[in-house]
Design a protein that fits this description.
Number of strands: 34
Oligomer: single chain
Helix content: under 10%
Radius of gyration: 25 Å
Structural class: mainly beta
Distance between the termini: 57 Å
Shape: elongated
């Protein structure tokens, strides 16, 4: 081999090796946040390393690994697409924690009150057995806190994981604990699958909803456990075709549709929501629909089926006079129309005497179906139901619900459409 040929071969090998290193960051082709300068010692600020890693991940479509045995401290950050790859994977094997002082949360005021904010990322996958710790206790004792001395911005506690316009999103495996506010919020995202996740916060932690969904469709939540200080799952306006299956809630405020109608000028619409084979364990409520006075829109084709209750307060609630106590709740005309709601296959115990509450507005709640709802007392006292302007049919239901006639015919029941992936 001549000298020129030898030099050409060496240069070619160097180019190939260099390209493999730059693209793959290792022989397995995965990225690690450690490659971008993260320390993972639980003390240093790893925010910039994550942002740098995101830029590469969004370009290459490789898997970004959060390695086991490491703890990464992150200030509020935005991870924004669109990405070049159709699949963007983050593997959480280690721990991600929020800042331990309020001053380090200052940027949350600029980011729409979220900590880990994902926007416009199609095909995002976040998985793994690691932990996300929001350090929420520093927020829970104050409603509003001035945390940015330079700008004097005031903002409340942030959501831990916020997803905006993230179609084909998949979340699985990880644990989120002590979120400052809601653990996960899905907004304007379609074709979402959440499975085998664990969301935990103390029972008295304010507004720590497990999963909130708004303006989203084709969402599946399954095989998960949620214990928080607020709703375990909350389906808000503009959502449809939501399937919640095999989810355990407790502590918490149960499985909720709403609240809806808080902004009277904006109609809220929710339909085809399906809760099945879920457990309410010592929850404040179990199956609940809540709407504000004066709202507009409709909530229809909502199904709660095969629900198991363990000492749950307020097992079944439709409340069209909802008020969170923080706003002016004077009487208003108008309401979100509630119709075509099914409660069936309920078993277990109620920790309150008033086990069923149907408190509807002047507009009324129509086509309410209860079938094989068998509740017993956990406190040794007779159970009762309360009805106000609700109509429909009840069969094999205890306690009895007088306003739902066993003779009244229903409109044809709307069959829920199952969501498959």
């Amino acid at each position: 081999m001549g000298l020129s040929s030898l030099l050409s071969s060496v240069v070619l090998l160097w180019i190939v090796a260099s390209s493999s290193f730059v693209i793959g960051y290792g022989q397995n082709g995965n990225l690690s946040v450690l490659d971008f300068g993260a320390s993972g010692d639980g003390v240093g600020d790893d925010t910039q390393a994550f942002l740098d890693a995101w830029k590469t991940l969004c370009t290459t479509g490789q898997t970004l690994t959060i390695p086991a045995g490491k703890t990464f401290v992150l200030k509020p950050l935005q991870l924004i697409g669109p990405c070049k790859s159709s699949s963007v994977v983050i593997q959480i094997d280690g721990n991600i924690v929020g800042p331990s002082t309020l001053s380090e949360w200052a940027d949350v005021c600029k980011m729409g009150q979220c900590w880990l904010c994902f926007q416009n990322v199609k095909g995002l996958v976040i998985k793994g057995g690691g932990f996300i710790d929001g350090k929420g206790s520093i927020w829970w004792n104050q409603k509003i806190q001035s945390i940015n001395e330079e700008t004097k911005l005031n903002c409340g506690a942030p959501t831990a994981l916020h997803f905006h316009k993230c179609d084909q999103l998949q979340l699985s495996g990880f644990t989120s604990r002590d979120s400052p506010r809601a653990h996960i919020f899905i907004h304007s995202s379609n074709d979402v699958r959440i499975s085998n996740i664990h969301l935990n916060a103390p029972e008295n932690s304010p507004n720590t909803d497990g999963i909130g969904i708004s303006l989203s469709s084709q969402v599946t939540i399954q095989d998960s456990s949620i214990g928080t200080g607020d709703d375990c799952v909350a389906i808000k306006g503009g959502s449809s075709f939501v399937n919640v299956t095999h989810v355990t809630c407790g502590p918490g405020h149960g499985f909720s549709v709403g609240s809806l109608g808080q902004a009277p000028a904006t109609p809220d619409k929710v339909e085809q929501v399906y809760f099945q084979n879920c457990i309410c364990d010592k929850t404040m409520n179990c199956a609940r629909i809540k709407t504000w006075m004066g709202g507009s829109g409709n909530a229809r084709a909502i199904f709660f089926k095969q629900m198991t209750l363990k000492q749950s307060n307020n097992p079944i609630v439709i409340d069209q006079y909802y008020c969170d106590g923080a706003a002016n709740c004077a009487a208003k005309t108008g309401a979100v129309k509630v119709s075509d709601v099914t409660f069936s296959g309920f078993t277990g115990t109620s920790a309150s005497e008033q086990a069923i509450t149907l408190n509807c507005s002047d507009l009324g709640c129509s086509n309410i179906l209860m079938d094989h709802v068998i509740l017993t007392s956990a406190i040794g006292k007779p159970l009762r139901s309360v009805c106000n302007k609700a109509s429909g049919k009840a069969s094999f239901t205890s306690p009895p619900v007088p306003c739902l006639s066993s003779k009244q015919s229903l409109s044809p029941t709307i069959t829920p459409i199952s969501i498959t992936h």
